[in-house]
Specification:
Elements (H helix, E strand, L loop, with lengths): L1 H30 L15 H38 L2 H5 L1 H44 L7 E7 L4 E8 L2 E7 L15 E5 L2 E3 L4 E2 L2 H20 L5 E6 L4 E6 L5 E2 L4 H6 L8 H14 L8
Parallel strand pairs: 3-7, 4-8, 7-9
Antiparallel strand pairs: 1-2, 2-3, 4-5, 5-6
Protein name: NERD domain-containing protein
Pfam family, one: NERD
Organism: Alteromonas macleodii (strain English Channel 673)
Amino acid sequence: MEILFVMTISLFPFALVILFAACYNKITDKKSRIPFDYARTARIPAFTLLQQHRDSSLDMLVYTLLSTLYFQLPFSLPTIAELLGFVDVSKNWLIYGIIFFAAAIYSLSKALRAFSKIRIARLGIEAEWAVSFALSKISDNRVRVFHDVQAPNFNIDHVLTFPGGVLAIETKGRRKPNVKNSKSSHKLTVEGEKIQFPHYTDTSTVEQAKRQADWLSKQLTQSTGMSVVASPVVVIPGWFIEYKQKPVIPIMNHNSLTKHYALSKKTVLDNSSLDRINHQLEALTMRGSDLF
């Protein structure tokens, strides 16, 4: 029990800060509130990734604080124990030191893992924003763009509707290797379902895009009462794409998006059909809660 009491004294400053933050937040919420309903706003581009970035940032902060705390506890415990007159705690310092150092290293490893997730999420966010910016340049008033369309266990990054059909766009952000004087460092090659980057081969993205488009087709067909086919598209911003073999589905740079949608001159969906599809997609992009 002595060690628990000494640890409580050691953790008191941290607990005080957390308590102060919680009280401040509660008092602020009582004085004012957001003047609109979160749930009735649409998801912005990369909304899911922004949530992941937030969660990983909080994890990194918590585990960094814990690792700092665990590292300093073996040194602060003897001092506090001596001031309180708990001799047994000081006698077992080596045992407590080993335990806390192990906990500190574990927490530090978790913080580094969270930092890695932050970097991955940041890349994905920037990629989706690049695609969103490219889509925003489409001036055709018959075109609608929806972001972060929600499915049961996944999300579709962007969905574009226009008289020529429905495009389900899967965005992939990939870093380029820093290789000096190498023309291949900015180039990827496409061969069927295989996407060959300079440093690895991607064989899953095409299948992922096809699965997501199939789900969207079934969802829209069921909800609108008419046959709707969503076409999958993979967009990889910032890369020069070379085609060694005709791809199974369109794979392109984000700057090619506006040209790709305009290639379909055939009118598949009239205004009434587009309105019904767009209404269902609006429902799939609503936030639905005030969580962020």
